[in-house]
Amino acid sequence: MSIFKNLPAAPVAEKKPVTDTRHGISRTDDYAWFRADNWQAMFKDPTLLDPAIRSHLEAENTYMEAALSDTKPLQEKLFEEMKGRIKQDDSSVPMKDGPYAYGTLFVTGGEQPHYFRTPRDGGDKQVLLDGDKEAEGKDYFRLAGIDNSSDHTHGIWGYDDKGSEYFTLRVRNLATSEDLDDVIENTGGGGAWAPDGKSFFYTLQDENHRPSKVFHHIIGQPQSTDRLVYEEKDPGFFMGVGGSLLEDWIFIDIHDHETSEYRLLSTADLTAEPVIVAKREEGVEYSMTEGGDVFYILTNDGDAKDFKIMEAPVTAPGKENWKEVVPHEPGRLILSHLAHARHLLWLERRDGLPRIVIRDRATGEEHAIAFAEEAYSLGLQGAAEYDTDTIRFSYSSMTTPSQLFDYNMVTRERVLLKTQEVPSGHTIDDYVTRRVMATSHDGALVPVSLLYHKDTKLDGSAPCLLYGYGAYGISIPASFSTNNLSLADRGFVYAIAHIRGGKDKGFEWYETGKMEHKQNTFKDFIAAADHLVKEGFTSYDKIIAEGGSAGGMLMGAVANMAPEKFAGIIAAVPFVDVLTTMLDDTLPLTPPEWPEWGNPIDSEEEYSWIAAYSPYDNVSAKAYPPLLAISGLTDPRVTYWEPTKWVAKLREYSTGDAPILLKTNMAAGHGGKSGRFQRLEEIAFEYSFAIKVAGKM
Question: N or C terminus: which one in the chain shows less Cβ crowding within 10 Å?
Answer without folding.
Answer: C
